[in-house]
Amino acid sequence: MNICVVGLQWGDEGKGKVVDILAEGSDVVVRYGGGSNAGHTVVIGDSRFALHLLPSGSIREGTVCVIANAVVVDPAVLIGEIDGLADRGIRLDGRLFISENAHVVLDYHKREDQLREESLGKQKIGTTIRGIGPCFADKVGRSYAVRMSDFRDLPELEKKLGRIVEYKNKLFAALYGAEPMTVDTVVENCRQYAERLAPFVTDTTEMLHTTIEDGKSILFEGAQGSLLDLDHGTFPYVTSSNSSSLGLPSGCGVPAQMVDKYIGVAKAYTTRVGAGPFPTEQDNETGQYIREKGHEFGTTTGRPRRCGWFDAVAVAYSVRIGAVDSVAMMHLDTLTGLKELNVCRAYEIDGQEKTFFPANIDRLAKARPVYETLPGWEEDISEATTFGELPPAAQDYIRRIEQIVGTPIEMIGVGPKRSQTIVRP
Ligand code: GDP
Ligand code: IMO
Ligand code: MG
């Protein structure tokens, strides 16, 4: 069985935890999109792992890990992660494979990301400053792109980097009055990256097809969330790639038909980091309660996450565009103690009720959430292991969301640990 795990909101839904759990039954785990803007957390007992580029299956020693073609790879971050896991006794030699076609994020991308965001002031997107947008822009622009396969021919790469740095220096000086970068540092860094990462670089598309032909199972790990999708999310407050499950086929060369099940991950409420519309945001005591109780601070940047009520309109949209068969709902425990819970079942736009999410932000900006209010619960649910052990109000909350979204909720998170997950038969 090949399964895709994808975020249904604006990222940080708990994908890392769900992937870690499902990885037990998979031979291969594949990251097919995004870059080090992602931060996926896995908590096993007292150990916490925050992964940015490595698939969340990396923690399991027997799992093969693939970083596919559409991931933009920051070699410094990746090497840091490989070394960090090795320090904790987890080795990736012989089981990590990186696509030769994956594009490389270099220092000038991060610099460009930062310079642009600073220059935009209030208009900024609120990116993670991980160089994601500039690297994808170079990919689409083609002439100044560096891919993992370029590390195989260092003399040729040195010439290319000379051209790129000259171009970027002119651009940064003209637009931002920035000091020039020296090509020597970039070249020297690339020499070190090439040496360290060369053993992992291969044709991952061929590898994945061979894996499927051999009858093995693959778990596809989405990054970001469907509402951050470049084409289908809340543009321009999105990331620079197709982060919904629609990005899977192009992201790794495996057609959508070869995926047997799509599992969408959502929190029992909604969060968002960075700027952009957020109809159910609670910039008040409720939002504060959720942020503190759920430890809602970014895994990658440490920024406080904006918090709000569960938005069933947004999640139903992600489910529809993503062919999602089943929902994994994390952080149900975080809602414990709130007297009443609001669920957004529709939007009111220009006096009309709408249940299809308007991704275009001009219309989304006008959307007023239409809430349904459900009773909360006081009982501690963090030790619950079955659906039946949840308080009736928590069960009703899950059932009502299933009805509105139209998809079964088959996994429920009651705490950050691997073990704190209810799987419904
Ligand atoms: P991802 O980007 O989707 O992998 O999610 P992140 O790792 O960025 O953020 C999710 C956060 O919620 C992490 O700190 C997880 O450890 C934590 N988490 C995941 N599931 C649960 C849950 O069911 N309850 C609680 N309290 N925390 C959870
Ligand atoms: P995971 O995989 C939450 C957001 C940024 C910003 C916008 C663009 O952990 O769920 P970028 O750096 O991609 O150009 O930033 O997208 N963003 C995320 N938000 N979780 C993520 O990843 C994110 N990756 C990007 O905050 O609003
Ligand atoms: Mg995250």
Mean pLDDT: 97
Would you identify the regions where 5 or more consecutive residues have pLDDT less than 50? none
- The amount of beta strand, in percent, is 15-25%
- List the bound ligands: guanosine-5'-diphosphate, 6-O-phosphoryl inosine monophosphate, magnesium ion
What are the secondary-structure elements, in order, as H or E? Answer: EHEEEEHEHHHHEHEHEEHEEHEEEHEHEE
Read across the widest sheet, the strand sequence of neighbours is 7-6-5-2-8-1-9-13-17-18
Count the beta strands.
18
Distance between the termini: 17 Å
- Share of helical residues: 25-40%
Shape: globular
Task: Please describe what this structure looks like.
The protein has 425 residues and is of the alpha/beta class. The chain is built from twelve helices and 18 strands. It has helices spanning 15-23, 75-87, 107-120, 132-141, 154-176, 183-197, 204-213, 248-252, 285-293, 312-321, 361-364, 392-405, and strands at 3-7, 28-31, 40-44, 47-51, 64-67, 96-99, 201-202, 218-221, 261-267, 270-272, 306-308, 310-311, 326-330, 340-349, 352-354, 368-375, 409-413, 421-423. Strands 7-6-5-2-8-1-9-13-17-18 form a ten-stranded mixed beta sheet, with helices on both faces. Strands 12, 14, 15 and 16 form a four-stranded mixed beta sheet that branches. Strand 5, helix 2 and strand 6 form a beta-alpha-beta unit. Helix 3 crosses helix 4 (132-141), helix 3 runs parallel beside helix 5 and helix 5 packs across helix 6. It is globular and about 65 Å long. The two termini are 17 Å apart. The model has no long low-confidence stretch (mean pLDDT 97). It binds guanosine-5'-diphosphate, 6-O-phosphoryl inosine monophosphate and magnesium ion.
